[in-house]
């Protein structure tokens, strides 16, 4: 409200009183009222100025807060996206592990079914460290101190190859193991030689006669250094003389599976 909007009506009243012959004290009273109104107007204008300044200050602060909120919102959005990516990765990894465990169980069952006619003392099938291990006694595959496969070995390896050929996403590691009794003859220098030759003999048969893809195969001689029993007894030595066929997920696929999605900056 402006001064003029209150002043002119009051001034008109004064002139009206003059024209009608109002008394002097009434004029003074009206002048006092006009003066009071002027003070009220000044106070209102001061209050209005203060309110405008406060409003401008609030607008500036709101502007600052809106900028901060936008920045924080972007940060929160990125954090949520990262959490979502990580959660998706964990879900995928869990699913893949469950699939691998289910596949391992199926492999064990199929192998045991295929090899059910073989004495349990000569062949053992189990899951260790997320891999299927087929442990075969040396007497089932080789003659004593020899790396040449016998006739019974062909039957065993044929059945194993039939199962692994149904799962082309798996790698096969053949490990040769010996007891701690030293060996040395015209063909073999020591237990390293014996274990390595036995492993490669099995690999060659799996590839050449039973058509397992060679890029899935690996041969390893472990000599006497990974025993499963005490070599101080004949029974322990017999348990340690073995060939292990380890069926494992393709390593390239496995490492890709473990790659976590990159976090956003």
Taking pLDDT < 50 over at least 5 consecutive residues as the criterion, the unreliable ranges are none
Q: Count up the helices.
A: 7
**What's the overall average pLDDT, rounded?**
79
So, CATH architecture of the largest domain? 2-Layer Sandwich
According to CATH, what is the topology of the largest domain?
60s Ribosomal Protein L30, Chain: A
Number of domain modules = 2
**Category from helices, strands and their pairing:** alpha+beta
**Content of β-strand:** 5-15%
Order of helices and strands: HHEEHHEHEHEH
Distance between the termini: 56 Å
Shape: rod-shaped
> How many strands, what sense, and barrel or not for the largest sheet?
5 strands, mixed
Number of strands: 5
CATH class of the largest domain: Alpha Beta
CA radius of gyration: 47 Å
